[in-house]
Design goal:
heterodimer; A: alpha/beta; Rossmann fold; Beta-Lactamase; 6-stranded mixed sheet; 10 helices; 11 strands; B: about 325 residues; alpha/beta; elongated; binds guanosine-5'-triphosphate; binds guanosine-5'-diphosphate; binds magnesium ion; GTP binding (chain A); GTPase activity (chain A); GTP-binding (chain A)
């Protein structure tokens, strides 16, 4: 098996934005299994809090949660040793804007949030020109529903204008810890980081072919973010286009209620298999490899269901062979 | 046709009243329980100025009335009959983090007054906002309130007042659990349901079994073994998962009904689900009718081998329940 093994890919992820913007809240919900109402008690981030998160077998996310208080920002930007340390070798910059901040006025060229942001992307461009930038306009729940779209549009275009060399590649999302938008944005972010996606999708497509499944979605085990998905022709017609982030949200919330039930606080509140049978569809969520779960949607009927269970075992083997999904790295758990 | 009771006159729906001082949390409770409002959103609720009537359509139809705290209902000029006539249960919401002496006085006055003209009303006191009490005092405060209300009622000449007490908070499952108990006190067939659920628990190695109203997630009966709030919470969140997944994937595909036996069989199925291996337990759910689902926690980590036996027993229960509900 060793010959399949690939070197671990380490990606540095910078999480930046003004103090109180919601960086640590997001990080705790996505990676540490907090739920939205738990994050009110998080302390302010002092300096940089770095954490490493293994996402799939061979992708290591090294997340730098950078405290947004003025003094720290000054030092990342102006102390040259600090500046190089923070901004070099970056894979992704996630910049969090607080939509309610009074210093984020899109009409004002000197709005402080935008000035700081443009200094930061400039430092990034000098040290890591290949990095990808995602800007999150956060706490959208505080904006009245009817205005959200317009607010996001205005804020996004102001951000884009200040993005320097990243102007064409930057992607912006509106987010809130109180709904699924958080999972949508983070799903897109990690999707952009995953190596050999095409091989993974190949295996899943084969599985769709064999099992008559409408849809197969692959989730990362701990975050339940969508790694990728494949659909049949029927699956394509599903009218709920936001279902991936919805599913992440649903299952993450449920995992947190499992932890309340068991009174444990570890980040791995597993379940074995979830099965649903209705008159319109059958659905299975089951562990595929040690670090992924697959959600499979099937037409109603008992035969299809059993047949798929069997094929799932076969696919499991294929995935284990695939570098990046190898079980080795998880043995210690 | 689905085993739902159709009451002849809508006025005869059992009525529940939410009463209490201003800002005690009545509207928050009815919004969280019946309108799925997120608890933190209640911060923006404005004072209620008129009686707000909600109805809960389920196996039995309930009305829930939210009574503004600012009105004096004991005033002579008030048409008490139109509000209190035909009430099944009254819930007094008492803010435990406030200075609660005034609330206790008003509560006692109200019960004493209503007892005379409407002796059939059952009373519950929700000792509310317990989440904001420091953990060290919580039990003391709950005990203090319970004691004072009981003493005051006793002093007023009510020796065995039909009053139950529940600590509640909209930030946890407590409010749903408490509401469930109030609703259960209005269900005449409760003992029958409980006996049926006890049988299931014993024969299928379940830790706990609930009969849920799927929409409100109030449980209308459970087996009679003791259980933690967290057990109810897990089952209730499990329903959310099933409801949400069914919404995302339950769209009409327009599959042809070829009239085959297979197609017929499928259309007659009731929805079912399980989750295996939740820290050594499994969860099981089965639709009973349009409104109700049976949800249980099994002591088996691997549910598959047990499923046939459980299905068999639950189907039997389903038949009996349908009969009981029809007779209503
Ligand atoms: N901490 C905490 N606050 C709560 C809880 N329930 C309600 N509140 C808050 O209490 C405040 C008043 O709630 P309302 O529901 O408007 O009170 P009300 O009883 O309907 O008041 P009136 O309409 O004036 O009679 C709101 O800010 C709620 O967010 C709870 O369980 N815990
Ligand atoms: N309304 C709202 N508040 C949020 C949201 N995300 C975070 N917050 C709150 O914002 C505050 C600061 O969050 P924190 O994550 O510590 O900010 P950081 O300094 O950027 O790490 C906390 O009180 C959070 O509860 C959101 O989406 N909506
Ligand atoms: Mg009110």
């Amino acid at each position: 098996m060793d010959k399949f093994k690939q070197k671990t890919e380490k990606k540095k992820v910078l999480l930046m934005g003004r103090s109180g913007a919601g960086k640590s809240s997001m990080r705790s919900i996505i990676f540490s299994n907090y739920v939205a109402k738990d994050v009110r008690r998080l302390p302010t981030t002092i300096g940089v809090e770095s954490s490493t998160f293994k996402f799939l077998g061979n992708l290591m996310l090294n997340i730098w949660d950078c405290g947004g208080q003025g003094a720290y920002v000054e030092s990342y930007l102006h102390d040259s040793a600090e500046r190089t340390k923070v901004f070099s070798g970056v894979g992704v910059l996630i910049y969090v804007f607080d939509v309610e901040s009074r210093e984020f006025d899109t009409e004002d060229r000197n709005a402080r949030d935008l000035v700081t942001y443009s200094a930061i992307v400039k430092a990034l461009a000098e040290n890591s020109p290949q990095a990808r930038v995602f800007a999150l306009v956060h706490k959208m729940d505080l904006v009245q529903t009817d205005f959200r779209e317009q607010v996001l549009k205005d804020k996004s275009s102001a951000i884009r204008q200040r993005s320097g060399t990243f102007q064409r590649t930057i992607r912006t999302y509106g987010t809130s810890i109180w709904d699924q938008t958080l999972y949508k944005a983070w799903g897109m972010i990690v999707h952009s980081l995953i190596p050999n996606l095409d091989v993974i999708e190949g295996i899943l497509s084969d599985l769709v072919g064999i099992t008559e499944a409408e849809e197969i979605i692959l989730f990362e085990r701990t975050t339940f973010l969508t790694v990728t998905s494949v659909k049949s022709e029927i699956g394509e017609r599903n009218p709920y286009e936001d279902r991936f982030e919805r599913l992440s949200n649903i299952i993450k919330t449920f995992k947190s209620s499992i932890s309340t039930f068991t009174g444990s606080s570890t980040s791995s509140h597993q379940f074995g298999e979830l099965y649903i049978k209705t008159t319109r569809f059958n659905l299975i969520v089951a562990m595929l490899t040690t670090n992924t779960y697959a959600l499979i949607v099937l037409p109603p009927g008992e035969v299809e269901l059993q047949c798929t269970r069997l094929n799932l075992f076969i696919a499991r083997d294929q995935f284990v062979q695939l570098a990046g999904f190898s079980d080795e790295s998880r043995k210690s758990q | 046709s689905n085993g739902i009771i159709h009451t002849e006159h809508s006025e005869h729906k059992p009525r529940l009243l939410l009463m209490g001082l201003k800002r005690s949390g009545k509207s928050s409770i009815s919004n969280v329980v019946f309108h799925k409002m997120a608890p933190h959103e209640t911060l923006f609720l404005e004072a209620t100025t008129q009686i707000k009537k909600d109805s809960m359509r389920s196996f039995m139809d309930f009305q829930v009335w939210d009574l503004p705290g600012q009105i004096d209902y004991l005033d002579q000029s008030f048409d008490a009959d139109s509000i209190f006539g035909g009430v099944g249960a009254m819930i007094w919401v008492l803010d435990a983090q406030d200075n609660y002496m005034e609330a206790i006085v008003r509560l006692t006055e109200t019960i004493v007054h209503l007892q005379q003209s409407f002796p059939e009303i059952k009373y519950s006191v929700f000792i509310h906002k317990t989440d904001s009490l420091a953990e060290d005092y919580r039990e003391d405060i709950i005990r203090d309130i319970t004691q004072r209300v009981s003493d005051d009622l006793f002093d007023a000449g009510l020796e065995n007042p039909p009053v139950s007490f529940y600590p509640t908070s909209i930030y946890d499952y407590g409010i749903f659990e408490a509401f469930s108990k109030v609703i259960q006190s209005l269900i005449p067939q409760l003992p029958v349901f409980e006996a049926l659920l006890n049988t299931i628990t014993a024969s299928c190695r379940f830790e706990k079994v609930y009969l849920f109203d799927v929409l409100s997630k109030i449980y209308i009966a459970s087996d009679t073994s003791a259980a933690e709030l967290a057990t109810y919470g897990l089952c209730s969140d499990y329903i959310d998962v099933i409801v949400d997944l069914s919404e995302v994937y339950g769209w009409e595909r327009g599959r042809k009904d070829d009239g085959s036996k297979r197609a017929k069989d499928i259309s007659k199925q009731s929805a079912e689900s399980f989750i295996s291996n939740v820290k050594g337990y499994s969860l099981y759910l089965r639709e009973i009718n349009t409104y109700l689902a049976l949800v249980g926690i099994s002591k088996e980590a691997r549910f598959e081998p047990e499923k046939a036996l459980v299905d068999y027993n639950v189907q039997a229960l389903q038949k009996t329940l349908k009969k009981v509900l029809r007779r209503g």
